[in-house]
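Hi support team,

I'm filing this because I wasn't sure whether my run with protoporphyrin IX containing FE finished correctly. The job status page said complete, but I'd like someone to confirm that the output block is well-formed before I use it downstream. Pasting the exact inputs I used:
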Amino acid sequence: MKIILHVWRQKGRDAEGKLVRYECPNVSEHMSFLEMLDVLNEDLTARGEDPVAFEHDCREGICGCCGFVINGVAHGPMPGTTVCQLHMRHFKDGDELYLEPWRAMAFPVLKDLMVDRGAFDRIIAAGGYVSVSTGAPPDGNALPVPKSDAERAMDAAQCIGCGACVAACPNASASLFTSAKVSHLGLLPQGQPERHERALGMVRQMAIEGFGACGNIGECEAVCPKRISIENIARMHRDYLCAAFGERPHGETGSAG
Amino acid sequence: MSVGSAARSAAGARSAETSKLLGFYHSPVGKKAVMAVTGLIGAGFVIGHMLGNLQVFLGPEVMNAYGMKLHETPPLLYGARTVLLIAVALHIIAAVQLTRMNVQARPKGYAKWTPAGSSYASRTMRVSGPLLALFIVYHLLHFTSGVAHPNFRYQDALHKVPAPYENVVAGFANPVVSLVYIVAMILLMLHIHHGAWSLFQSLGLNHPRYTPALRSLARAASYALLIGNCAIPLAVLAGVVK
Ligand code: HEM
Ligand code: SF4
Ligand code: FES
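And here is everything the job wrote out:
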């Protein structure tokens, strides 16, 4: 089948970009979306043109590298699917598709469909970890975890950091990503000691990076390839508010010493 | 420790306390909590206000007696007005700050953008909100102060107690005025449709057992506000209330 693409082309971070039209004449329905772009890039290279830059690694929907907006929907029209796992059988002959990079002040475009998601790393560095003692591994199940907590923590831990939630949000808010990280640690006993500092640090970092505020509209969970629920965002709000109101300066204990 | 240094450290602790107290507001999550609490106060008020106003259907005696009673209990009237004024002011300040931040966060939009999971009401909060602000100003000048009402009546001219029944009937007899109110109530319906459940999410309350019910309740409240409030101008125009 034939697919017509309008691809955002931008040479570098500070360059002006524009949509460029390409025709892909021999698209097989068994191809993934990225394989269609591979074929386009081979054609472009053969013609001496610059291939379209897009990020990818595992192509199994687990690494979180890939992603761009297809006809206004992050990762394209199939719910719960990354763009590397999206197959061309979901499109029809003659379809015209607009491909654009994630758009957010905090995600500057590096080239074409590729953005710099370093802001996510800095949000993680602001609290998305647990401190553990090194040494012999602890016994398995030494710390009991209620089953429902473990399940919800694992659901949240599925986030692959792709950034589709930011791309889909009209406010370019990073709340779904950040709340998934806050939840997957905050629901487990190992995450308790740093729970409040984590919520404060990560929420503050989101704003520092230039992400917007959550309006609870739900576009993020609709496009998330891992179907992370906005229930996690409520948990992050709860942890943040408890932490912000209950925060104590270091060394301040219960009684006036 | 000398008395002077104790006093100094107490003052230092106090300013640290103040910044702690308001520190939550520095982040967008804190600002949303303020929007949520002030929005809840507003939502509670608009429902109570509608129930009060529906007394026009019980006739001039009941309606005007209700207005008189409010004016005879100044602590209630002025207490409520103060709380509402502060709530609306904080709601607007936080809305402006958040909206500015949200616009900056997406400097370049998409050539194509297709909503995948949000309601129309939720995407238009920053349109319905400011238009409601304009309506609130007009509404206060119209039925509260009377400045924007061509034949504003008082039931007790000496104590400046308005006659709500006569003012409502005379006000809504003008179809243009009625239309302005009806459009404003559509905006209010949209704002509450999303806002009345979103506020719980902003405050960190979401549970699979209760959240679907809360969303239905928000929807029901928004439709009730639309129908209940629009019934009044429509009844006046239809000559049912005169
Ligand atoms: C009748 C008066 C009003 C009521 C009852 C009301 C109620 C609410 C409620 C319950 C919310 C949800 C808060 C949340 O998501 O946590 C909200 C959000 C909002 N309101 Fe209002 N509101 C009123 C007037 C206004 C006005 C005058 C403005 C004008 C600036 C405004 C602007 C907004 C905006 C922009 C939001 C969305 C905030 C965001 O998600 O970032 N509202 N309102
Ligand atoms: S929450 Fe979902 S959409 Fe957002 S980064 Fe994680 S996996 Fe991607
Ligand atoms: S390439 Fe790894 S998730 Fe798509």
